[in-house]
Amino acid sequence: MEEKKVLISPSLLAADFSRLGEEISMINRSGADWLHLDVMDGVFVPNISFGFPVLESVSKLCKKPLDVHYMVVHPELYIERTARLGAMMMNVHYEACQHLHRTIEEIHKAGMKAGVTLNPSSPVGLLEDIIVDVDMVLLMSVNPGFGGQRFIENTLQKVVRLRELISHSGSHALIEIDGGVQEETAPRLIASGAGVLVSGSYVFKSSDPLKAIETLRS
């Protein structure tokens, strides 16, 4: 059986924003598959990151598919604008969407893939009735809002449970992990069934980011 490729999606949140153009140029040269963009509103999570002016600049420079993760209330308000950026994936939190099925439908209608994120305390069973409609599930392996946190070990069992749900439902959803992903946790996540790894500090704070990206994949 052919081994599935693990996708790497570095998180721009950990980049040096005084050198944003150089950081994106590095991503373009790297073996990264996507660029992960964390949009925070200071309401859904206790932090504010960046908004559409930055997203629009990034979209003009980045040659990698954009993996946009909304940690905001009412993410459905930003579907059309996100689509105009040329984003490949729009990821919304289960906890932030009152009408999740409708939001997923609208993301698809806008021409993007739809992802759903679960906070560490949200069980994967919440997605039982929606799993066949989503392209990806993002499991937060830290509490959302800040970079550089310690990996939550229970995430490994959560990945296994999610993989079982996907398999039993016939869904083709990818499993993405965000938080505390580095050379020690990456192989364990991959072994558990993760297919996409988001990494911020480990990549952007590394003395050799290009090598760090390849280390995660291997």
Task: Summarize the helices and strands and which ones pair or pack.
Elements: E1 7-10, H1 20-29, E2 35-40, H2 52-61, E3 66-71, H3 79-84, E4 89-93, H4 100-109, E5 113-118, E6 136-140, H5 155-169, E7 174-178, H6 185-192, E8 196-199, H7 201-204, H8 209-217
Parallel strand pairs: 1-8, 2-3, 3-4, 4-5, 5-6, 6-7, 7-8
If you had to describe this structure to a student in words, what would you say it looks like?
With 218 residues, the chain is an alpha/beta fold. The chain is 33% helix and 19% strand. The chain is built from eight helices and eight strands. The chain has helices at residues 20-29, 52-61, 79-84, 100-109, 155-169, 185-192, 201-204, 209-217; strands at 7-10, 35-40, 66-71, 89-93, 113-118, 136-140, 174-178, 196-199. The chain has an eight-stranded parallel sheet with strand order 1-8-7-6-5-4-3-2. Strand 6 (136-140), helix 5 and strand 7 form a beta-alpha-beta unit. It is globular, with a radius of gyration of 16 Å. The model has no long low-confidence stretch (mean pLDDT 94).
User: Mean of the pLDDT scores?
Assistant: 94
Round the Cα radius of gyration to an integer and report it: 16 Å
What's the main sheet like? 8 strands, parallel
Helix content: 25-40%
Number of discrete helical segments: 8
